[in-house]
Design a protein that fits this description.
The protein is an alpha+beta fold and 149 residues long. It is built from five helices and eight strands, in the order H-H-E-E-E-E-E-E-H-E-E-H-H.
């Protein structure tokens, strides 16, 4: 992929839409582009986050099997972010992340992620809105006992 195509992919992710062009270029250059085949494990439950993942293309399933054998899952699709919640609260991943389809992600290292939050208010606001949206969907699912997607 070229830098221009990486920038085009990043511009489609809501939290990056308001990022100034020089910062977006920094994200594209400093982020690590990764590809996972369908079925590949991306993160194991209990691991500590070392970066935040932005899904450029594909779907990732975060799942947890309880002691009674019942599994619960949460689907992340193109444009979604994952890894930000455990990183922000200093906790390990609560489930295993697996590529549901072939997936391309951009992984931002911890330091760059926090630098963006501290120095670019529009990025911090966009991330806050994204977190609030995910929290709302989760609360709606728990209260109405429906599948979270």
């Amino acid at each position: 992929m070229t830098l221009e195509s990486d920038l085009a992919c990043l511009r489609r992710i809501p939290v990056f839409k308001t990022l100034p062009p020089p910062r977006l270029k920094l994200v594209a250059l400093m982020g690590e582009r990764l590809h996972f085949d369908a079925g590949a494990r991306i993160i194991a439950e209990g691991e500590s986050p070392d970066g935040v993942y932005f899904i450029l293309d594909g779907e990732i399933l975060l799942s947890h099997a309880s002691s009674d054998g019942r599994a619960r899952s949460f689907l992340f699709e193109t444009g979604a972010i994952f890894g930000d919640v455990p990183m922000l609260c200093g906790q390990p991943f609560v489930g295993t992340a697996t590529a549901k389809s072939d997936v391309s992600v951009l992984r931002l290292p911890r330091d760059l992620f926090f630098e963006l939050l501290e120095t670019i208010p529009d990025f911090a606001i966009a991330l806050s809105r994204d977190l609030a949206s995910r929290l709302y969907r989760l609360a709606d699912s728990v209260l109405h006992r429906e599948k979270v997607h």
